[in-house]
Amino acid sequence: GKLSLIAEFKRASPSAGQIRHGADPVQIALAYQQAGARAVSILTDSKFFSGSLDDLTRVKEKVRLPVLRKDFLLEEYQVVEAAEAGADAVLLIAAILPRPSLRQLIELARDLSLDSLVEVHTERELGEALEAGAGILGVNNRDLATFQVDLRTSESLIWRIPGDRVRVSESGLRCREDVEFVRSQGADAVLIGEELMSAQDITERIKELMGW
Hints:
Layout: E1 4-9, E2 12-13, E3 17-18, H1 25-35, E4 39-43, H2 46-49, H3 53-62, E5 67-70, H4 76-85, E6 89-93, H5 99-111, E7 115-120, H6 123-131, E8 136-140, H7 152-157, E9 166-170, H8 176-184, E10 189-192, H9 194-197, H10 202-210
Helix pairs in contact: 1-3, 1-10, 4-5
């Protein structure tokens, strides 16, 4: 019954630019763990997020929490890379994956003992993700084309996700009221990155956001 936090490590993003230049992933992830996060998301894309697979591996070696590889995964080898780097799960974005590829990558991840967090932004993408067998659905409140954030995306989609799946609200959660809103819509977990990475005191900011 407790809303879970997937806390994200990213030094930069296309929408925000540099967020925490030179940040150490292990130090940040340990702060997340201490504050009560249930999983850590690691941006491994170098071009847009200043990340790497090495960030993920270092975190996995030092932190007890499950680790998600968050990246633009399009090919099978990238899922294999994630497993070899120590990931427990991968992000698959429905908007950039054709339906057959989405199913194929979910099945490959399962074969490699990885979970898949399948990200959706529209009702059509949600239908495709469910049809492909997604067990963890992430509703992204940010439009990937415009970078605009609207929490009504969670409002319109979360209730459509069957109760036997894990429902995650992602992006644009900046205050306690935002977190409570998506929880009221049925979210089981929230994925928060920028708001934590830009905080001076990460532990206190998590407590404020989550009400812990």
